Fold:
Amino acid sequence: MDAETEGLPHVHSSWCLLVSTLILALTAITTSALRSVVRYSLSPTLPVHCLLDLLCGLELCVCGFELGVILDIYDIPLYSVFLWIVLCWQAVSWGDATANPYSHLLRWHAGSQTGLQSLVRVGAGAAGALSSYLVLAPLWKYELSHFHEGRADRSATGACGDDLQVSMISGVVVELVGTLCCFLSGSVLSDLPLLKTKPLLVTLLDNVVGVALVIAAFDLTGGYFNPNLALGIKLGCGKGGHLQHLAVYWMGPCVGALIAAPVYNGVKAVVVTQNARDKKIKKMAEKVEKQKKEEEKEEEKKTK
Structure:
């Protein structure tokens, strides 16, 4: 009887993990199929791009919510594995569509999108993120998993807890630096000679870094590094208010994304210049050494 009782938590946890895995898989497959239908059925106009971004925002936050359930079941190790799988899937399946507001900010900054187009697409992604609860809450109410019990009500009433465990300024810095590091890791990996022709491997390794950064910031801000992810999951949670939320989870990541390219190019220029200087010095040293050896040989010939 005792052995059976001890086995129950494991059985319940395994069942809950299976339920969450099925929800993640169903979400990924459904939203991917809808994006494919939209892409192949409609011409790429602004409303179509907005619809694709909305689906990305929906997928992003539904998966984010359910990953939180997995975190409650098996803690960080298994959560990290599932997070990495979800990030890799989204990187491969989203294509040009995105739920990241700073992606549109960067496109506007680069001149590939107008300000209006960027603003409208950011709004579409945000709408998808906010609608994720409306999609997931009815499913949670069935309580297929006991980790779903009361979850919908807690999110609806704002009793979902505040992930910001540091001051607002520190939170802004954490989200800024985390987002900056995410961008820098991708750039560094893409520039490595061994990986230049292997974009899929770059994506896989880049998301390993992304997961590590999320875990590092977990007890500070929650490690969101994506404004829409924080918007869909944490808006209204805690007592910090909307201004604090916007400062930490919107301003921080957007600034980090904007400064990533200048920082990387600046560091790269310094490194390249230093390497060129080192090569020049090495070449000159080799030349001097060669001349010295030739002089020694000449002196030996004269002494003979």
